[in-house]
Design brief:
One of its GO terms (molecular function) is zinc ion binding. This protein is α/β, with parallel strands linked by helices. It has one domain: Alpha carbonic anhydrase (Carbonic Anhydrase II), CATH 3.10.200. Helices cover 12% and strands 25% of the residues.
């Protein structure tokens, strides 16, 4: 069965600015994957501290069922019709992921402050990595009022981190869920947040603005990704679904590149796994990061449910949705 109609790396190149800048990345330089205006400093500016919210978190991966037994049927990436039979929302009008066409991205000026956040530079008290059968998931516990939190800009409230996970392919030619001008990348990281007004992830999935996912795509480069090394050092202990391992804690700032400097596009979508809840605000970082071939091979050693070698959903129709890039008039 054909995996996807998306362009794979190594196929005929598209006449796109995405590809030109990715070429620069492959020479070992971190780049921004769009010639969009804005202050793109190397370090993200996180703004003022924010102490609202609690450390109550719901760590289900993108809201999908977390037990290994229940998740078996949710990991069949060759039979999407089975998803739709059990979860009709998976055939909805606001599904994710999507392809980002550079020429169709719309710029909008907001008379508000840009994004603000706190906790992304704070090292958690503890951190756990889990093979839940359909991804590698990372969760943590932070000091009181220090759990990573984001607000401002186009967000309709305050959002708190709950977990992070990864999507990859069976080889380096694909793996990301989102694409840029139909160009796929080998790895995509999802940093998942829920709206604090709703209390936890499970409740947040009942609202169309309940979840925020910050997604970063990674391309094959010359160097190891140091942040990923911290996680992959524990992979030998989570090769089988259901296994977990406590790891040395680290701050999440390495996985939200460019978001607080405006280097992202946004659209309204869904979870990319059942129940496919249409509850997600997506921020797609325009800073494509580097990952080595050796690091990608380490992901493919992780055993998933149904012995799948990949865990990325195909892109879905936009159905008239806008993909936005924001500018802010207030500092």
């Amino acid at each position: 069965m054909t995996r996807s109609t998306r362009t794979q790396r190594g196929a005929m190149p598209l006449p796109s600015p995405w590809l030109i800048l990715v070429f620069l990345l492959l020479q070992g330089n971190p780049v921004d994957v769009a010639k969009l205006p804005g202050d793109l400093n190397e370090e993200d500016e996180l703004g003022n501290n924010f102490n609202k919210g609690s450390n109550n978190q719901d760590g289900d991966p993108e809201g999908a069922l977390s037990s290994n037994e229940e998740a078996q049927g949710l990991s069949n990436y060759t039979a999407y019709e089975e998803w739709m039979d059990d979860y009709p929302t998976c055939n909805g009008m606001r599904q994710s992921p999507v392809d980002v066409e550079n020429e169709k991205v719309e710029t909008k000026i907001l008379d508000v402050h840009g994004l603000r956040g706190s906790g992304y530079k704070v090292q958690p008290i503890s951190m756990t990595i889990t093979n839940n059968g359909h991804s590698v998931m990372l969760s943590g516990k932070w000091p009181k009022n220090k759990t990573p939190t984001i607000w401002g800009g186009p967000l309709p409230g305050v959002y708190m981190f709950t977990q992070m996970h990864f999507h990859w392919g069976a080889d380096d030619s694909y793996g990301s869920e989102h694409t840029f001008d139909q160009e796929s990348f080998p790895l995509e990281v999802h940093v998942v947040h829920f709206k604090t007004a709703y209390g936890n992830m499970s409740n947040a999935l009942e609202y169309d603005d309940g979840v925020l996912v910050i997604a970063t795509l990674l391309a094959i480069g010359e160097h190891q990704n140091v942040a990923l090394d911290k996680i992959q050092a524990n992979f030998q202990d989570i090769l089988t679904p259901g296994q977990s391992k406590t790891l040395e804690p680290f701050a999440l700032k390495y996985f939200i590149g460019g978001i607080f400097n405006g280097s992202y596009v946004s659209y309204l979508g869904s979870l990319t796994t059942p129940p496919c809840s249409e509850a997600v605000i997506w921020f797609l970082s325009l800073r494509i990061r580097s990952v080595s071939t050796e690091q990608m091979e380490a992901f493919r050693q992780i055993k998933l449910n149904n012995d799948f070698k990949y865990n990325n959903r195909n892109t879905q129709p936009l159905n008239g949705r806008q993909i936005m890039h924001y500018h802010y008039t207030s500092e």
